[in-house]
Design goal:
single chain; 108 residues; mainly alpha; 0% strand; QCR7_sf; mitochondrion inner membrane; electron transport; QCR7
Amino acid sequence: MAFRTTAVALNNMKKWAYNLSGFNKYGLLRDDCLHETEDVTEALRRLPQHVVDERNFRMVRAMQLSLTKTILPKEEWTKYEEDQLYLTPIVEQVKKEREERENWEKIY
């Protein structure tokens, strides 16, 4: 019983932190906020074009909202349950490939 209560409390804290971060008020997803390193750029190159277009739309809309100092109506905010990691798995794969390549170059 204590485990279930702890899990519920942890989930509520995650939702609270997610809403506190503020990017969801602009309609952004968590992966839209990744710092664009070489690995992220390579992962974006590997994504299907329609996913990249959707990301670009969200980014442009967020910049426009930020410039006008407004946010989306509450019903259009990204919800914690709806947020999906579309880029993180690919970034992790790219990092593993890069590290493997670097290790290979060190050895040979």
